[in-house]
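Teaching note: in complex prediction, the entire set of molecules is handled at once rather than each chain in isolation. The prompt given to students was simply: 'Predict the structure of this complex.' The entities are:
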Amino acid sequence: MLVLGFESSCDETGVALVRVPEQGAPQLLAQALHSQISMHQAYGGVVPELASRDHIRRVLPLAREVLANSNTALAEIDVVAYTQGPGLAGALLVGAGVAVALAAALEKPTLGIHHLEGHLLSPFLSADAPEFPFVALLVSGGHTQLMRVTEVGQYEILGETIDDAAGEAFDKSAKLLGLPYPGGPHLARLAEGGDAAAFELPRPLLHSGKPDFSFAGLKTAVLTQVKRLGEAPTEQQKADLAAATQAAIVEVLVKKSLLALKTTGLKRLVVAGGVGANRLLREQLNAACARRGVRVHYPELSLCTDNGAMIAMAAAMRLQRGMAVLQTGPDAGGFEV
Ligand code: KG4
Ligand code: ZN
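The expected output is the structure of the full assembly:
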């Protein structure tokens, strides 16, 4: 069975083709991705209208690329999967619209996938795929959650952020430091030459005893420091503040992940979402988990941020388990924003 997947929830247009074998792990046959980051950079963030328009421009050429690279004819596709939400309404509509139209033309069903389930299952695209059950740390631009994952579709939220997401904390702090959008990777790079001890920043809810998060206060503290540094901070001061910000976010993420592992008694941790690409987070989680006999799984670096492969993969895993709610005809194409 072949699944073609579309992702268009925010500023990345992704298309991928996954083969679902009778037995064994689904295989990624081809994928294509277009990032709109450079287009939105001038505005300091994603402009929804521009995002939708660019998805419209990119989606069909990307789909053609995937089919050509995998030597697959359109008629061979069995299921068309797409991100049904959450995300930007206009952006989601493009992926959903194309998926539903394609499926209707092929007389094949569609399968709407929750964007976060795509992230959550993205480590299954790597050679070293995890086994169920595991604790998942989902850290993206819009979400920060710890979950107990028993099987596909069995997700118990153990804790989440009460305000900003970890990615948002990275991006907003980066903006205050004058870095381009999306700030996470830029802040991480700047932090490499910085001394995290040069600034004292809060770690909200660190000792709450629960796997919950709060990052809004950190952003305010960074703003206070930026103001204190005045109009012309030195490069070293900026690097130090970036390092302190990153250290604060990472410390909270590591500590809460360990708490979730302890309370569930699970010995496997899966990290997913854009912030999962952060090197300091990976280093500190690896070290802390190694001491506790916990295995940590990550998606491949290129699959941490939004992509079509994770959507096709999540659809494939649902199909394999007979739990996919396939839609055809006028009911197809449901989505949520
Ligand atoms: O998962 P994702 O692509 O989009 C959402 O679904 O939100 O995550 C994007 C987020 C952004 O906030 C970005 O700054 C952050 O992931 N990010 C990073 C790094 N790479 C991406 N944050 C910290 N360090 C990184 N290396
Ligand atoms: Zn995402």
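Point out the following to students. The CA atoms of residues 10 and 193 lie 31 Å apart. The chain has a mean pLDDT of 95.
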